[in-house]
Structure formats: C-alpha cells, structure tokens
Amino acid sequence: MCRIAAYAGPEIPLENIVVRPSHSLMTQSQKATEAKLAVNGDGFGISWYGDDARPGLYRDVLPAWADDNLTNLCRMVRSRLFIAHVRASTMGETSRSNCHPFTHGRWSFCHNGQIPHFKTIRRRLEAALPDDLFDARRGSTDSEMIFLTLLKNGLDQDPAGAVQRTLDQVGSAQGEGPVKITCVFSDGETLYAFRYGSNGVAPTLYASGLLDNGGRALASEPLCGHGGKWTALPVNKLCKLLRTGLEIQSQDAVLVD
Prior knowledge:
Layout: E1 3-13, H1 15-18, H2 25-31, E2 44-49, E3 56-60, H3 68-76, E4 78-86, E5 102-104, E6 107-114, H4 118-128, H5 131-136, H6 142-152, H7 159-170, E7 180-186, E8 191-197, E9 206-208, E10 216-219, E11 230-232, E12 238-242, E13 245-248
Antiparallel strand pairs: 1-4, 1-10, 2-3, 2-4, 5-6, 6-7, 7-8, 8-12, 9-10, 9-11, 12-13
Helix pairs in contact: 4-6, 6-7
C-alpha cells in the first residue's frame, strides 16, 4: 500500500511535511508502520499550488529516499496547499505516468488502495469517459481511472455526489477481495479526503490538529510517530480539511459488498 501526506494552511516549505517530521512521508517510504509493506519504493510525486490555479507537479520512478532532487525541491519550494505520495504498486508498471499525484486542470489527486476486479470493469469505465478525459489518460492504474471517473461524475460541481457516483460505478469485487479506496484530492482551495472499504476496512488516513504555524495536515500515518494529536478519518465519509478544522459530511456512502 502507498503512503500519502498533504497540507493546507499558511505557506511553508514542502520539507516541513515531506522530510523533516520524525515520521515524515520520507520516513514512511522506508518504515511504514500501518501498512502491509513497510517499504514504498515504486516512485513518488508531489503536487503543489501557488498563484496559478493549476498545480505544479513533480514525479519520478525512483524511491523517494534515493532522489536528492526531491529533498532539494522540498527545501526550496513553498506552498499553501500540497499533496505528496510514495508508491507501492499493486497495479500498473513502475513508470512516471503511473506515479501519483495525477492532475487535470485545477485538480490534483492521489490514491492508496486497490480495485481487485479492475480488469473486468476497466473497459466500461473508459468507455464512459468523455473524449477530453479519455485523451487525458496517460497511465494504466486503477487510481488514475478513479480520478478521471470522479471528474466525469461532476467533481467540479459536486464532490460528494461525484464520489458516490464513482463508487456506484466501481461496484463490488464479487469474491475477488474487498475494494479499498483511500484518496486525497484538491481543487487548490480545499483538501478533500475519502476512505472506503467494501468490507468496512480501508487504508489509514489521519488529520492533524492545528499545527504550530496554524496549518493542518493529512497523512497515512501521524507525522509525529504517534496519534495523540491526530484523528483517524471515518470510513464512508467525505471529509474536508479546513483551517478551522475537519469537516465531515453527514451522509454515508451507500455502496456495500
């Protein structure tokens, strides 16, 4: 399983989330403690927002710990909102186009989990995409397909509805194992997060309390190494991370296995 970290708040160097904490995303890339695999070495990526509505994007196939460019970029680049991801691949080869985050227009998206029956629904999901989103597809992962399907289902206008419609179209695995989807995405203004497991179990994701600088973070595992000031996000709820705190939708997702 992959690991995710994201931030929203006053502008900070990316390294304050990705590199410097005691259990930073960089540390989790080699020593994850809440995943089946401790090592997440199949590439990495960061999307970040500045003055342009469209995010910047840096991705590569190297393990995060092996790329000096990443640590230098994180030291020098500052952002008010960013999403970072280290990959342990479950579907799709190790290539830059399969590394997260994925971006389209103002949106950026990353995912941790899997759709075990993806091969049986891939053609149907692809056929449902409008031409512009079909042409935007670059990789072969179920993660990128989830993102494009969310966009097709109205992510711009109705994030909660887009999530529900996407889950409905993904459907159940029918004996091939549970569907597990934990994703973080943003339009450059708000950080959204969603955890779904068809068996009620989804990959971990936590929200921080108010950080020293007044910002807030999301992470697959608490960046301080313990969960005292971190809240586990609920399953089947769309969450929004705001400067004022964590906002959780009141309506459950209805898809069950």
